[in-house]
Amino acid sequence: MKALTFTLLFFTFSTLAFATSDKKTLTLTLESPDGNNAQTTIYFDQGITPSYDVHEDAKYVFSNITGIPELYSYTLDKMACSINGAGTLQSTEVISLGYHVSGPGNYTIRTTQAENFDPTTIIRLVDNKTGDTLDLRENFYQGQLDSNDITTNRFQVLVSSPVQYTSTNSNCSNSGGTITITPDSSITWAQVQLLDSSNNIIQTYTNVEGSLTFIGLAEGSYHVVYTYNQYTATNYFYLKGNFVVAQIGVPSQPIYTYQDVIFSAITTNANEFSWDFGDSTLIDGVAHPTQVYLIPGTYTVTLYTANNLGCSANAQATVVVLAGYAAGVNEAAKAEPVMIADGKVINLNMNGALLSSSAQVVVYNLLGQNIKTLPLNAQTLSINLENQANGYYLVSVRNAGSINTKRVFIAK
């Protein structure tokens, strides 16, 4: 009982002191014909020494109780352990098992906790006496064992490394993505299939031993299904793309002259934007610019988009601009404001319009960026733009529900 208590305490200590987020634990059980059983634990973790280490492993304490089977594993230096630490499955780990039984009979070896491993990790039991190999994920071992057996290295547990993945994004035409899988070199997959999100089979390969690349893929969700004997494993992933898609979000029409009109770039994978509003106004670098039309008419708006990977797409939309004010504008506010530039100062005269308490003036540059906002509480207002570059600016007067915007040129 003292030895058992020591083993349990040691396991608790080693789990707390040496476990990492990558730790995987496998428990093997040996069951006798009359239902008695014994267990041994193998764990895979970072920095674990394959030879016996008192801080990482627990020696097996032999009981020799009649009718009770015993099962243990060996470290690299042949130490029998009840708890045995191995590496992190960068390649197949091979763990030798030992056992002791009281008499002949049909014994069973099974595993639990296999679901904690990556689905593409294959866990096999090799019987070196018969030459049989069994997949412990799907089956359990049953065979004749006897107390006279030479038990050292009779059985070995082989735990393979999971399949590794690399991928490249789909190209500008959304047809050149790749996914490369690299299985453990000790595993031959009977079949490997790539399927899309609708479970359509894209590509199928058989007897896969080394690296394999799926080509010609578009952006989207995929999954790979592996078959090993009767066992199947599935990995899911998303493949990105570099292609660009562009569409213009057009504001509600009709549009009126001298109104702020906000357009939107509805895009995929784009980070460069250029606009041509059809009236000689060009705006670069803004995804959602503000445009002001001064003359009624029908205009074709063109959006040019691209990304830094060399992919591009264009979109067009047609807008109709009407003269006057939008419906519902307060009649008392319709007096036409006058804007005159004097060097870099813009002088505004509201020309007798009634001013609401929230009236204001907003100045934009031609990129659609707001550079100045001022309250409007008098008939005249001087707007100082001394710190701005020479050129055209949009001055938007917002008063009593109306928006009146004019383009003004300033220069020193």
Task: Quickly list its features.
single chain; 412 residues; mainly beta; 4 domains; 11-stranded mixed β-sheet
Structural description of this entry:
With 412 residues, the protein is mostly beta strands. It has four domains: 2-159, no CATH class; 164-239, Macroglobulin (MG2) domain (Immunoglobulin-like), CATH 2.60.40.1930; 245-322, Immunoglobulin-like (Sandwich), CATH 2.60.40; 333-410, Immunoglobulin-like, CATH 2.60.40.3080. It has one helix at 2-18; strands at residues 24-31, 37-44, 58-59, 70-74, 80-86, 93-100, 105-112, 123-127, 132-135, 141-145, 155-159, 164-168, 177-182, 189-196, 201-208, 212-217, 220-228, 231-239, 245-249, 255-256, 261-262, 264-268, 272-276, 282-284, 290-291, 297-306, 312-322, 338-342, 345-349, 360-364, 370-375, 380-384, 391-399, 402-410. The strands form eight sheets. Strands 1, 2, 3, 4, 5, 6, 7, 8, 9, 10 and 11 form an eleven-stranded mixed sheet that branches. A five-stranded mixed sheet has the order 20-27-26-23-24, with no helix packed on it. It is elongated. The N and C termini lie far apart (97 Å). Residues 1-18 and 325-333 have low confidence and may be disordered.
Summarize the structure.
With 412 residues, the protein is mainly beta.
pLDDT under 50 segments (min length 5)? Answer: 1-18, 325-333
Q: What's the overall geometry?
A: elongated
Report the portion of residues in β strands.
over 45%
Q: Tally the helices.
A: 1
What's the pLDDT, averaged over the residues?
87
Name the structural class.
mainly beta
The main β sheet shows up as: 11 strands, mixed
Gyration radius (Cα, Å) is 38 Å
Tell me the number of strands: 34
In total, the number of domains comes to 4
Helicity level, as a percent range? Answer: under 10%
Q: How many angstroms separate the termini?
A: 97 Å
